[in-house]
Amino acid sequence: MLTTRNNRLDPSLIPEAQLAELAKVFAKPDHVALIDAEGNRTHLPEALFAHFARIVRLMSEKKAIVLVPEDEAFTTQAAANYLGVSRQHLVDLLDAKKIPHHKVGTHRRVTFKDLLVYERTRDASRREALDHLAAAAETAGVYDSDYTGEK
Fold first, then answer.
1. pLDDT per position in the chain (151 positions), as tens?
2. Pick the CATH number of 73-139 from 2.60.40, 3.30.1740, 2.40.50, 1.10.1660
3. DSSP assignment of the chain, as one string?
């Protein structure tokens, strides 16, 4: 089970000057290497570099970061909070098999990976519906792309 306390990177734990220095280093693409105590140098792979750069940038903006593994199991309330829906709506989605879940005893759990898949699918469906609605409005001549909202 996710414990935010252990997975939270709080920017207040790192001096501002050090965060600012790290932000400058990570602002330059592909210029970061790790050096261990024996002086061995290892360059960060691009995928890790991009994530570390984003973490450092967000922390320098005083934003905390929470790391969540994809296989992390969420309670129904935590999953509902993540998706921005009520717990009952989430339970209805689980019962309708729109989001996979498993049980721990009598309690349902949803993996973060499955929440991400559902969220991407839901968002794509919404975008498609809005695009269709905009196209229908434009075809009907009721959509004015130059509309400024001023009277």
1. 444 567 888 999 899 999 999 988 888 876 788 899 999 999 888 888 989 999 999 999 999 998 889 999 999 999 999 999 999 999 999 999 999 999 999 999 999 999 999 999 999 999 999 999 988 888 888 776 665 556 5
2. 1.10.1660
3. ---HHHHEE-GGGS-HHHHHHHHHHHHSTT--EEE-TT--EEEPPHHHHHHHHHHHHHHHTT--EE---TTPEEPHHHHHHHHTS-HHHHHHHHHTTSS--EEETTEEEEEHHHHHHHHHHHHHHHHHHHHHHHHHHHHTT---TT--S--
